[in-house]
């Protein structure tokens, strides 16, 4: 299993490619990624952790303020525990920053994963058309 390190702004194009390659956002969920990119500025401004492989990133997660803002794992790395490692790394960073909790607005099929990781459902975020036409579960990790 690869180490997790801090992403740098130059990683942004590879992170964007990983996001767009995700089968989790196929079909009805594809609209949320229309025109989306992880920018170098985003990577510089937030705590972005990356699992690298010689072929490119296997996954990454971002802590933006007190929110787990992004979590993507390459389809080929699903089921390996990498997602759990990335969440744990983000929560460790949040603790080191003195945050009392970390919020997650989840992709609906991922809500169960976050609950298995210890998050508690706190509500639902309404749709935001035109890109997000579905409700999203809101969860919280208490630290």
From TrEMBL:
<dbReference type="GO" id="GO:0016746">
    <property type="term" value="F:acyltransferase activity"/>
</dbReference>
<dbReference type="InterPro" id="IPR016181">
    <property type="entry name" value="Acyl_CoA_acyltransferase"/>
</dbReference>
<keyword id="KW-0808">Transferase</keyword>
<dbReference type="Pfam" id="PF13673">
    <property type="entry name" value="Acetyltransf_10"/>
</dbReference>
<dbReference type="InterPro" id="IPR050832">
    <property type="entry name" value="Bact_Acetyltransf"/>
</dbReference>
<feature type="domain" description="N-acetyltransferase">
    <location>
        <begin position="2"/>
        <end position="140"/>
    </location>
</feature>
<protein>
    <submittedName>
        <fullName>GNAT family N-acetyltransferase</fullName>
        <ecNumber>2.3.1.-</ecNumber>
    </submittedName>
</protein>
<keyword id="KW-0012">Acyltransferase</keyword>
<dbReference type="InterPro" id="IPR000182">
    <property type="entry name" value="GNAT_dom"/>
</dbReference>
């Amino acid at each position: 299993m690869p180490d997790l390190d801090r992403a740098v702004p130059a990683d942004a194009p590879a992170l964007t490619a990983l996001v767009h390659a995700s089968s989790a956002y196929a079909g009805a969920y594809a609209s949320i990624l229309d025109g989306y990119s992880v920018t170098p500025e985003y990577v510089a401004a937030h705590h972005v952790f990356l699992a690298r492989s010689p072929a490119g990133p296997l996954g990454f997660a971002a802590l933006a303020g007190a929110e787990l803002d992004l979590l993507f794992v390459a389809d080929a790395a699903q089921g390996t525990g990498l997602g759990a490692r990335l969440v744990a790394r983000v929560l460790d960073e949040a603790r080191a920053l003195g945050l009392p909790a970390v919020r997650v607005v989840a992709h609906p099929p991922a809500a169960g994963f976050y609950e298995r990781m210890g998050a508690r459902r706190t509500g639902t975020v309404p749709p935001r058309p035109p890109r997000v036409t579905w409700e999203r579960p809101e969860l919280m990790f208490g630290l």
